[in-house]
Design goal:
The complex is a heterodimer of chains A (279) and B (95).
Chain A (H helix, E strand, L loop, with lengths): L2 H33 L11 H30 L2 E4 L2 E6 L4 H20 L18 H9 L1 H18 L5 H19 L8 H29 L1 H4 L3 H37 L9 E2 L2
Antiparallel strand pairs in A: 1-2, 2-3
Chain B lengths: L1 H27 L5 H23 L2 H4 L4 H23 L6
The chains are: A mainly alpha (279), B mainly alpha (95).
Chain lengths: 279, 95
């Protein structure tokens, strides 16, 4: 009898958390626009980067880079985390799994390129609706979807003129965006308060920050080859990627997830129906 | 600088070729994951192909958009269409 009031309270909590996340991200966006796109050092989102400094950021991001890279190769080699243990997992990598990867790559890469340079919101060419797809593919399809996201971003880099050694960072960085919510959310349905709260923590906040720091560390480390100044990497690129990823993801992904989860699950394409985690 | 730029893309192309060859070898020996590695190699080299075509036709210099938008739409439609066609044929969408 008491479950209904508790459930209602949880829904209120979930909506408040979602609203706070979206409001905060919109506030960051207004702050960027008010101070000017050409003045990243004044943006609110850049201030933690200034406080930590390049050396501090390089050290912290280096740890995240090593962990992210290990996870990337570990997942592809058939091992995964179960709690704090590393266990075997069985991904069939049959025609269905490979077609899921191909679908994710084509849709993510194609959508990123198709909307590039177009002001989806009048005056704002940098708004990239396709960013919403990266965590979604991980949440729905697991490792095959996350790998498709990596490949899609790699293709989009070529179509946007950014392809280079730096794209290797983007390759794994985009895997992380999809992987973090896939692995750390316990409920992927977007139909419970828990699912919504978990999404905003892991799918919006943690994945965006981790992806940004992963790619930024690589751009800093490979500076002699890539040629991007470290000040640009940590003072503009890193905060901008966090904002740009989380902006669309926070607003669009839960809606897409709510719509797509039932048909994907019904057709046996949801990752938990295809990936077997042992141990 | 010019040399490092050339090496960068040459290196990425070589990586793509190695992945493709590994995929073919895995597939030929009927090892698990062969199809995936082959797909990865093909899409990697498709990416390098786009880069080289855009470079030699001057698309990067003369204006990337709307050429990149059109290629993106084509990729989206062809990729989505091919996979949905396969899923329809294999009965995945009839479940």
């Amino acid at each position: 009898m008491a479950s209904r009031p508790i459930s209602s309270v949880l829904w209120v909590v979930a909506f408040v958390i979602a609203a706070v996340f979206i409001a905060f991200i919109l506030y960051i966006g207004f702050d960027i626009l008010a101070k000017g796109l050409d003045k990243p050092s004044e943006w609110m989102i850049t201030q933690p980067f200034i406080v930590l400094g390049r050396d501090g950021l390089f050290a912290i991001s280096g740890v995240l880079w090593v962990i992210g890279t290990i996870i990337f190769f570990m997942e592809l080699s058939g091992r995964t985390f179960k709690g704090l243990r590393i266990v075997k997992q069985v991904i069939r990598w049959d025609a269905i799994d490979v077609s899921i990867t191909a679908l994710s790559a084509a849709v993510y890469g194609g959508a990123l390129a198709a909307t590039g340079g177009i002001p989806i919101i009048p005056g704002f060419t940098w708004v990239r609706p396709a960013n919403a797809l990266a965590p979604l593919f991980g949440i729905l399809f697991g490792v095959p979807g996350a790998l498709g996201t990596s490949i899609g971003n790699f293709i989009a880099d070529a179509l946007a003129g950014y392809l280079g050694v730096g794209s290797l960072g983007g390759f794994v960085g985009n895997f992380i965006i999809a992987y973090v919510p896939y692995k750390l959310m316990k409920d992927h349905s977007f139909r419970t308060p828990r699912s919504i709260i978990e999404f905003y923590i892991w799918g919006v906040l943690v994945s965006s920050v981790w992806c940004s720091l992963y790619i930024s560390w690589w751009l800093d480390f490979a500076e002699p080859i890539i040629g991007l100044p470290k000040e640009f990497v940590w003072g503009y690129f890193a905060p901008w990627v966090i904002f740009n990823n989380s902006f669309i993801t926070a607003i669009v992904t839960p809606i897409l997830g709510f719509i797509l989860y039932p048909p994907i699950k019904a057709r046996g394409l949801y990752w938990a129906d295809r990936i077997k985690i042992l141990g | 600088m010019v040399n490092s730029v050339i090496d960068q893309y040459l290196s990425l192309t070589i990586v793509g070729i190695i992945i493709l060859i590994a995929g073919i070898a895995l597939l030929a020996s009927k090892k698990k994951g062969g199809l995936l590695v082959l797909l990865l190699g093909l899409l990697w080299l498709l990416t390098m192909g786009i880069y080289y075509i855009f470079t030699y036709t001057g698309v990067y210099e003369t204006g990337l958009y709307p050429v990149a938008n059109v290629v993106g739409v084509v990729l989206l439609i062809v990729g989505l269409g091919a996979v949905l066609y396969y899923w329809t044929r294999s009965g995945v969408l009839k479940r």
